[in-house]
Amino acid sequence: MKSSSEEPSSDQVGGRSYWRWSKQDFFPEESFKSWGSYRSALRQTWFRLKDRIKSRSDDITELGELRKRSENDMKRCLNWWDLTWFGFGSVIGAGIFVLTGQEAHKHAGPAIVLSYVASGVSAMLSVFCYTEFAVEIPVAGGSFAYLRVELGDFAAFITAGNLLLESIVGTAAVARAWTSYFTSLLNRPSNSLRIHTSLHDGYNLLDPIAVAVLAIAATIAMISTRHTSSINWVASAINTVVILFVIIAGFIHADTSNLTPFMPFGAKGVFQAAAIVYFAYGGFDNIATMAEETKNPSKDIPLGLLGSMSIIMVIYCLMALALSMMQKYTEIDENAAYSMAFQSVGMKWAKYLVALGALKGMTTVLLVGALGQARYTTHIARAHMIPPWFALVHPKTGTPINATLLITISSAVIAFFSSLDVLASLLSVSTLFVFTMMAVALLVRRYYVRDKTPPQNLSMLVAFLLIIVASSMGTSAYWGLNPKGWIGYCVTVPLWFLGTSGIYYFLPQQRTPKFWGVPLVPWLPSLSIATNLFLMGSLGAEAFVRFGICTVVMLLYYLLVGVHATYDVAHPPRQPEEKLQQADNEDDGKSKTPEAHVSFHQSILNLVAKFYCCSDDTVGEVP
Length: 623
What we know:
One of its GO terms (biological process) is amino acid transport. Its main location: membrane. InterPro entries: AA/rel_permease1, CAT_C. GO terms for molecular function: L-glutamate transmembrane transporter activity; L-lysine transmembrane transporter activity. This is Cationic amino acid transporter C-terminal domain-containing protein. The protein contains 25 helices and four strands. It has helices at about 25, 35-45, 45-55, 60-70, 80-90, 95-110, 110-135, 145-150, 155-185, 210-225, 225-250, 265-275, 285-290, 295-325, 335-345, 350-380, 400-415, 420-445, 455-480, 490-505, 525-535, 540-570, 575-585, 595-600, 600-610, and strands spanning about 10-15, 15, 195, 205. The longest helix has about 35 residues, at about 350-380. Strand 3 and strand 4 (about 205) form a beta hairpin. It has one domain (about 75-570): Amino acid/polyamine transporter I. With about 625 residues, it is mostly helical.
């Protein structure tokens, strides 16, 4: 055992304390050295933006150089068993226990089970894409790292912003739901433990309990990944027993007359609900962020991700069906649906068991979320899109404490004010957007390799991808404008088929996965694009207004901070002797920076720039 005099050394790295707060730790880049250098950087914003749009990272950089910026490695302590239970823990929570009742009551009726089928199929398609990337690039950044490699720095930033938004808002939503079920367990009115104020509707119920729960979950996650896994395993096992009880008891007390009418709000209501309950499947991307702490990513990640998600999809559908048969959809309680449903069939005692199970489920969601979301944030900070202070990994715990604090404090502020329905719609848009980008990135990875793919093949790939995306958006728009029509589909669906067939028949795959790959490429990724965009189009206009406002804020931050920080990291000022050393490295073929790859082939750069829809006049020489 270490003596007390030795303890401080556990927080030291190379003579520097982990707990440091200087300006250099937050803004070490050249552009932020002084106000003069920052003004100079702002004058170069357009030039730097073009450079960032054209730049791409690579597998080696993400796996090596960026990881070193955390100063300490995360501990490899997880296997497929841990990831499978992390899958259960991260997914089964607020979505099924809260959103099921909310959407069955408002939009889908008994057809909520079809909503879970539709969103589940779309989620499984995204799981395939995530699994291939996580096996090939096993780093903490998840989809941010994957898109940075395939679609470039700017696309990765848009994803990073949405990932942070998804993490913060999703965590806040679960914390709010936790309070609702805790209230039900105490047999009190739904909002009795919240503080009522005169603020705007949707923001007028303050929730201090949600803040406390977030703080406890984050503290556990910061102490140890291994210990968090053990707690999650036990809690998820107990929650699984409760879920089996809900399904069995629900079917025993089923009244099939409650299924009539089955689709009271029509097909539009089913898909509108599907877009919202997609949130219930959203936690699986946290598993991909744990690849850096997985002992054998090529084996453990496919088993953990695909295995857990397949079982979860079946469980969700059975639970939704059980709820719909126990209680008429018009009578379902929106805040604590299952507890109230059992009370309505005379099983008042079961109400407390279900509430306890729901609390355990949502607690594990917060635990696993605190792990996965902090790892997203860590890798985003490694790329300097947010201050690199958040990338630091603690030398003793092997966990990113700073990143965990960022997500937790931000989530706590939002959870304190915002209601669940406000959070869920915004979260679904962000989640579906990121998953759409992931499917596009997978097609780019399979069909485009720098220095290998002929220019004409890249041009064809871009054209076919545009057809797939445009036709999918057209299908979604037509559905929203005319749900009962069919003529528009006669145009959009054949166009989608044309774009996908074009990739399949005219473009050879340029890359073969080393360990595990998505089957039926390009069909499954293309279908993932179509389903995600379709579900996005099923959301209300208010969700897109909020999403648009958040996107504008993200872009403003990027133009003022992000583009300059990442440009400085990619193009650091060099001393004469450093330039000579770089030349020696290039002669030996050892240069591994993404900019080095890009600068050797201006013709490839031009094609990549076209991929991002840049005009010809924006494609200049790389400095």
